[in-house]
Give the backbone structure.
Amino acid sequence: MMSHEDLFKAAKAAMANSHSPYSKFPVGAAVRATSGAIYAGCNIENASYPEGWCAETSAISHMIVAGDTQISEVLVMSQKMDKITPCGGCRQRISEFSQSDTPVYLCDANGVVETVTIADLLPASFDLDDHT
Ligand code: THU
């Protein structure tokens, strides 16, 4: 079993619960925290379109509520895209709780298609580590 198979299964199960009647574009995500725990999420849309949020955001919120604070791996998948990548806002949210070399597994409906790092996705990122 590939090391990210458990993340993929968690994201796929979350994607099955996606609330995306407007875009009809279900997305699933999962993060593994440094504790080893996995947190999954789906996109949750709203009749007021801008009020919806992404699968990655759901997964991160589960992680934070559970008391974990550091992501060691991220996986994102969609039913309808050959290789989904996190949106700009989610790149920033992932970055907040990751290291520059944290892997992000980009998937289609069947498995991982490409592995990148969060720094690949968000170069020259804004963070306050040295300024607060
Ligand atoms: N979406 C995600 O959940 N994650 C992404 O990485 C890209 C986009 C969602 C937002 C919206 O519910 C739907 O996909 C279409 O944009």
